[in-house]
Amino acid sequence: MTTTGPHGAAPRRRRGRPGYDQAAILRTAVELFNRKGYDATSMGDLARELGLTKPAIYHHVTSKEQLLGQALDDALDELTAVVTEAAEERAGRTAYERLREVVRHSVEVLVAHQPSVTLLLRVRGNSGVELEALDRRRRLDERLAALVADAAAEGALRADLPPPLVSRLLFGMVNSLVEWYRADGTYDPATVADAIATIAFDGLRPRGDQAS
Question: Is the pTM of this model over 0.85?
Answer without folding.
Answer: no
